[in-house]
Amino acid sequence: xxxxxxxxxxxxxxxxxxxxxxxxxxxxxxxxxxxxxxxxxxxxxxxxxxxxxxxxxxxxxxxxxxxxxxxxxxxxxxxxxxxxxxxxxxxxxxxxxxxxxxxxxxxxxxxxxxxxxxxxxxxxxxxxxxxxxxxxxxxxxxxxxxxxxxxxxxxxxxxxxxxxxxxxxxxxxxxxxxxxxxxxxxxxxxxxxxxxxxxx
Length: 200
Known about the structure:
The chain is α/β, with parallel strands linked by helices. It has helices at residues 13-16, 30-34, 36-41, 57-69, 96-103, 105-113, 125-145, 156-167; strands at 2-8, 50-53, 77-79, 150-154, 184-189, 195-199. The protein has a single domain (2-17, 28-86, 128-199), classed as Phosphoglycerate mutase-like (Rossmann fold), CATH 3.40.50.1240.
């Protein structure tokens, strides 16, 4: 059984400041860096053959810290923009509470979690899905078919898009999916890529 591990990056500086990051390249916060050993413990029992992540610093830093903790710095790491966070457009850099005051809590929630509503000049989850899923199918599914165990370290909405694809979550229900900072999802697949089990 091939294993797929999906890990949301550790807490970034703008996560700490409650600001929309999106494509803005923000490093991890001190708290995020300090949480790496505990997060790595959740991966210690898994044989990992390959890692995928995005070019955003918060994702690459998370990979580096986790692999160092696991003494697996030699693992191959593939970096691709397909796994970047959604572009939050004009919301990028804004404090989330201030955005709620300006646009209304309901509208901000739809921009952040719904399927096809995009923030001004930004991406909807549907947009993220349309760039993330083809990459996942072409590269990560190919590795899984070969029986490789894969770790994907990425941002919230690129991971939500992948989970939607794997679990066949409806466009309506995807609004309910949240993955916490350093949240880990584990899947097992048979050779036909049928999901065997998953856990959050």
